[in-house]
Amino acid sequence: MFETLEKEIVKQKQFLTDVLEGLSSETKHISSKYFYDKKGDAIFQQIMHMDEYYLTDAELNIFETHKCEIAKIFSPEKEPFNLIEFGAGDGLKTKILLNELLSHDIPFDYVPIDISQNALDQLNKSLTKGMPNLSFKGIQGDYFEVLNRLKEDNGRRNVVLFLGSNIGNFTNEEALSFTSEIAEKLNAGDLFFIGVDLKKNPRKILLAYNDPTGITAEFNYNLLRRINRELGGNFNPDQFEHHPTYDPVTGECKSALLSKIEQEVEIDGHTFHFAQWEPIHTEISRKYSVKQLHTLAEKSGFKVKTDLFDSNKYFVDSIWEI
Ligand code: AVI
């Protein structure tokens, strides 16, 4: 109880430090990891159900089409393994895979890792209701710490899922250091299963991050509202405009909030000046080519085993082996 409270205080301090630092920079920025408070989680759920946000359906399509093949790759001889998932989410896609594995009587533990115990409890409830035979072993904590522990565990194969193009929210350097660290923590023969959004018609991409109903805009404004709620800021979200851009060369879809007027905003006794149309960068959602993705795999020490595409070739689930 005290430990949780202490952790919460440390997290809040870090949030304040990051926001103050980001808004004091030459190019103002706030990390997209702060999108995800309770309200932000709920808006992201709405985003995933929007027609414009094609990523969810594309990855679901891959799971539906290739589930049998995936199950065989994970456990060719029906040997027991750990199915580890980074970031619990709502389990919508994973559920397809879990059902497939169970229907083939393949023995496995499902090990979702998340920093939120609440997210894990909810997932446990929703999954085990429909799958009473599922061995659910959710672990609260940091991805790498948990991988370290599992590495020494019971000599089983580890299969790590990192779905939903979450890798896109990292810069190139962050992505490489993330996948390299996973490669280091896994044993020979273990697998990394990564879902990645591919480069495509820029109009299709921009629409996914600028839906006409304004849900994605609200996702961004929630960041300002969160700063007001938790750090005592006085942002007026109406005085900012959601502004996504996409560069087909780098594959970077970037979101920013532009100050519609010249204004000053106060946060915890600090004043920040905004020129008219000055941006606060909030998110990068990078799109990859298959070639760029394979380079990332090789540079981080993996071998690409196979690529699975949806019927439109919008998205790839790539399976890497160590
Ligand atoms: C979580 N992440 C992969 C989403 C993305 O597509 O970058 C977050 C998101 N931001 C705006 N819409 C969705």
- Count, helices: 10
Please state the average pLDDT score.
Answer: 94
Low-confidence stretches: none
User: Which cofactor or ligand species appear?
Assistant: N,N-dimethyl-L-histidine
Structural class: alpha/beta
**Major sheet: size, sense and barrel closure?**
8 strands, mixed
Strand segment tally: 13
Q: Shape, please?
A: globular
Distance between the termini: 39 Å
- Helix coverage percent: 40-55%
Tell me the Rg in angstroms. Answer: 20 Å
Series of secondary-structure elements, N-terminal to C-terminal: HHHEHEHEEHEHEHHEEEEEHEE
Q: Approximately what portion of the residues adopt beta-strand conformation?
A: 15-25%
Keywords: Methyltransferase, Transferase
InterPro entries: EgtD, EgtD_Methyltrsf_superfamily, MeTrfase_dom, MeTrfase_EgtD-like, SAM-dependent_MTases_sf
Pfam family, one: Methyltransf_33
Domain Histidine-specific methyltransferase SAM-dependent: 17-320
